[in-house]
Amino acid sequence: MSVRRLVVGISGASGVILGVRLLELLRALDIETHLVMSRAAILTIGHELGRPIASVKALASVVHPPSDVGAAIASGSFKTEGMIVAPCSMRTLAAIATGVTDTLLTRAADVVLKERRRLVLLPRETPLHLGHLRNMVAVTEMGAVVMPPVPAFYAGTSSLEAIVDQILGRALDLFGLDCPGVVRWQGGRP
């Protein structure tokens, strides 16, 4: 595959800044992005970020409606590096864990898993109950990487933007993409 291509899913969980900032970072890295958002994500973007949905869509190379289960990203023959769902709601996590692919977001994740490509999920919920944990185990056993967006306090980040960039930089590491500004642990101090 000559073009580096990544699917970005944004679900309706709190923390949609993760998905929006991810699109900005991938654009700067010249990665072709295929965006699919749940209907709840569109509502959450308006509530949390107060920005027009058109401005988020403009960050992606290609935008797919959540109902378009015939989109390119719904097929394993469409080559991608994989997919990141940021944030990943517990509903989306449960759908992926059980193979319920009733939207393009969950179908695209299912395709990534069946093709043995990288699927990174940034689940946003706390506290977790046993059902959440079991779904995380299930997707991990299927090959996904569950990466809760937990701040790296050693990075000394002092703003929300820096925390978000640090989290997303580590997520992009999982695809071999180097994001400038990521603070890396250099070992303990004496």
Write a structural description.
The chain has 190 residues and is α/β, with parallel strands linked by helices. It has one domain: Rossmann fold (3-Layer(aba) Sandwich), CATH 3.40.50. Helices cover 39% and strands 16% of the residues. The protein is built from seven helices and six strands. The chain has helices at 17-28, 39-49, 53-57, 90-98, 104-114, 130-142, 160-173, and strands at 5-10, 32-37, 62-64, 82-88, 118-123, 145-146. Strands 3-2-1-4-5-6 form a six-stranded parallel β-sheet, sandwiched between helices. Helix 4 (90-98) crosses helix 6. 40% of the residues are buried. The model has no long low-confidence stretch (mean pLDDT 95).
Write the layout of secondary structure elements.
Elements: E1 5-10, H1 17-28, E2 32-37, H2 39-49, H3 53-57, E3 62-64, E4 82-88, H4 90-98, H5 104-114, E5 118-123, H6 130-142, E6 145-146, H7 160-173
Parallel strand pairs: 1-2, 1-4, 2-3, 4-5, 5-6
Helix pairs in contact: 4-6
